[in-house]
Amino acid sequence: MERAPGLSCLIAIAATLMAQQSGSPGPAETFPILDPNRAEFPAASLHPCDDHLASPAGRRGFLFAGTDGHFYFQDGTAGRFWGVNVAKDSVFQPRRVIDAAIDAIARAGFNLVRLHHLDDEQ
Question: What is the rounded distance in angstroms from the CA atom of residue 83 to the CA atom of residue 51?
Fold first, then answer.
């Protein structure tokens, strides 16, 4: 049976949370910071999930909706998306912060970003 693309990331996240709760020891420099209160853009898990991103973008061709209502690429691959929403004041940040956020989003394996309130700037 074939695993879903994001399953290994979810397993890694669950294992990380269990390890943190059990207080298992380990040198701080070998593990990424997962606590959102200790880093500006903490790692999403101990296992980087960016290997699930298809690159370069566009190599599978254009995306279209099939007659069954599902997304497909021109090469016949099913379109699967793992997304995040960036809203309100988080959209309007200095370039340094945006670049760091992009790196964190890619490490987490997201391939879709919704920018909400993009036209809200006065």
Answer: 15
